[in-house]
Amino acid sequence: MLELAKDFELVREKYINVIENTPGMEEYARWVCGLHPTDAMLKSYIENNEMYFYIDDGNLVGMIAIVMHQNDDYKTVAWERELKNDEVSTLHILAICPEYQKKGYGTKILEEAIELSRRNGKKAVRFDALRSNVPAQKMYERYGFKFRGIQKLYYENTGWADFLFYEMNIDNGA
């Protein structure tokens, strides 16, 4: 189940663990301690009640930021429907603790994120992923997210890189 994460040090420690102990991190997600996710980013998600832990049987198995809007930079993507920024939730920095990877927890977190978005009246869930993050893309597509486009974006941890955008309509309005 998803629980709001309030402890910055614990959130930071768990992301560092994921970055340092996930096979293929350099190739797939390219997260780098201090560059992505940044401390400021994590603190902002926590302060805005957007950071969640996924807890299973008392164990912290993963984390995700669920933002109940989209930023204007998402407006340039060819989404299935044109929605207002506040009609959409966006998912960020989904991570599974290394000892729980490849056990279906990514899908469970997606299910909970979609349900939370639905309860908050959102019409769609959207996110982006690095083109090189093929394992994540396969999970998203298996779950039913639709590919909507590619944009070249610059981030400190990736440099200029292609990001793929995904969407799932959740209000039966499509």
**Cα end-to-end separation:** 28 Å
Mass-distribution shape:
globular
Portion of residues within helices: 25-40%
- Name the structural class: alpha+beta
Q: Which value, in Å, is the CA radius of gyration?
A: 15 Å
What fraction of the residues are assigned to beta strands by DSSP?
25-35%
> Which parts are unreliable, with pLDDT below 50 for 5 consecutive residues or more?
none
Which H/E pattern describes the elements?
EHHEEEHEHEE
Please state the average pLDDT score: 93
Main beta sheet strand tally, sense and closure:
7 strands, mixed
- In order across it, which strands form the biggest sheet? 1-2-3-4-5-7-6
| Count of strand segments | 7
| Tally of helical segments | 4
Task: Give the secondary structure arrangement, pairings included.
Blueprint: E1 2-4, H1 8-21, H2 39-47, E2 51-56, E3 59-67, E4 88-96, H3 105-119, E5 124-130, H4 134-143, E6 146-155, E7 159-169
Parallel strand pairs: 4-5
Antiparallel strand pairs: 1-2, 2-3, 3-4, 5-7, 6-7
Question: Care to describe what's here?
Answer:
It is a single chain. With 174 residues, the protein is an alpha+beta fold. It has 4 helices and 7 strands; from the N terminus they run βααβββαβαββ. The chain has a 7-stranded mixed β-sheet with strand order 1-2-3-4-5-7-6, with helices on both faces. Helix 3 (105-119) links the parallel strand 4 and strand 5 (124-130). The longest helix is centred in the middle third of the chain and has 15 residues, at 105-119. The mean pLDDT is 93.
